[in-house]
Amino acid sequence: MSAYDGMHDDERNEKRRDGRNGRDERDEERIFAALPPARGAAFARSWWGRAWLKALEDTALDGEQLKKGRRHARAGAVGAVSVRPGRITAVVKDRDGAAYRSDVLLQELSEAEWDRLLDLAVESAGHIAALLDHEMPPHLVEDAAAAGLELLPGIGDLEPECGCEAWDHCPHTAALCYEVARLLDEDPFVLLLMRGRGERALLAALQERSAAGERAAGEGSVGKGSVAEGVSAEEAFAARDILPPLPVPPTLPPAPGEPPSLDTETAPEPGLDPAALAFLAADAAARAHRMLAEALAPGHAPAETPLTADQDAVRLAAGAPPPWIAERLAAGSGRRRAELDLATRAWRFGGAAALSVLEEEWKPGREATVRAGAVLAEAWEEAERPVLRPAGAGRWTVVGADAQLRVGADGRWWPYRKERGAWVPAGPADPDPAAALAGLSEGEDVDEAGVRAGDEAGVVGAGTVTGAGP
């Protein structure tokens, strides 16, 4: 048991009271619930989280203890973590069920050091913005190091104390450090609290210093009786140095990258199909390559609208995957295989918009119906107009021909042909219904087949749109 463990709460508080303005540095403590096991995941994704783990791995003398600690952390053996100025604490269980209180100590910054750090932070709006976004700005860390302040721990800075009475980092303190790396990924204020300042106190101090700096700047630049408004052009131009320069645009690789091989000696988890996962990885690589090519092209189009799961299943099937993949896509999207084949045919003509025209019966309002009628009336010369029969909302069938026109919500016209008693997509959309219908059928003159003299029951000439609106 350490000397710290033997103290009563009052004694510990008194020991940590340093007399600086009568302020108790232990006025903040954060408790983080035990995290779930981290099997297969990296313990640190952020650069500051990796720096924390490097300090641990550079400090520990026995690499085997670190390996055991990683296994403990991955297995979820670390309980709730307490973070206070200068100390982190948790109960860590061994595989045999024995539990040990483990502490790791980190030197707090002095009051003078905190003053210097706050001055550095308020000098750049980018530093404050990054902290508010729960990121550790690298320039702040670099500026602090140049001023003799080390925010991130280095070799020997993480001092272990454990109930197992090990004199170096043991599996329990190592597991605690690996777990804290996961906390740091999400919130760098955890590190700043260990260094002595909690999030609320730190942000309040930054706000106070920023306001004081603005007042001082205003008093120095505003003449007597005048009112400062806006920001001077000189100051705005100088602020360009706050933000780092934009990175150089990446070069487009000649082809999509090869996904990593999933052929390992380890059996997959139940329900996981490595071949299907490899197919999805290859598709993701191909899409990323295409999107990068579009982004690097001059005047590139805006980003694609996100697809629903059903739409994405059709997109994948349109890429002609192996039959067993197509069967799974059909089942997963609630379609029969024939329905999926029809959907992929539509997709190849026009993506999600074409799929919507195929599977959804859009009901145009009165204004859209009138507009569609006017477009149909103007699309042909009077003597060449086919006769159209309303076939549902936004759909017109050509009388005497296995041809149909459908209008989408965007006002474009889609040609359809009847095959084996079913209407199927027959071409891409066109703003002009006559153009959409013109190339619909080879060897069959749709206009001639559709022209009729006089009206028949339920049949109207093109341009007279009835029965299609709500």
Report on this model:
With 470 residues, this protein is an alpha+beta fold. It has helices spanning 9-16, 47-59, 63-74, 111-122, 125-132, 138-146, 171-186, 189-194, 199-221, 233-238, 274-296, 309-318, 323-332, 337-359, 366-379, 433-438, 446-450; strands at residues 30-32, 81-84, 87-93, 99-105, 159-162, 387-390, 395-398, 403-407, 413-419, 422-425, 460-461. The strands form two sheets. It has a six-stranded antiparallel β-sheet. Strands 1-2-3-4-5 form a five-stranded antiparallel β-sheet. α4 (111-122) packs across α9. The radius of gyration is 34 Å and the shape is elongated. It starts with 8 loop residues before the first helix and ends in a 9-residue tail after the last strand. Mean pLDDT is 78; it is low at 1-26, 222-228 and 441-470.
Element layout with pairings:
Elements: H1 9-16, E1 30-32, H2 47-59, H3 63-74, E2 81-84, E3 87-93, E4 99-105, H4 111-122, H5 125-132, H6 138-146, E5 159-162, H7 171-186, H8 189-194, H9 199-221, H10 233-238, H11 274-296, H12 309-318, H13 323-332, H14 337-359, H15 366-379, E6 387-390, E7 395-398, E8 403-407, E9 413-419, E10 422-425, H16 433-438, H17 446-450, E11 460-461
Antiparallel strand pairs: 1-2, 2-3, 3-4, 4-5, 6-7, 6-11, 7-8, 8-9, 9-10
Helix pairs in contact: 2-7, 3-7, 4-9, 12-13, 12-14
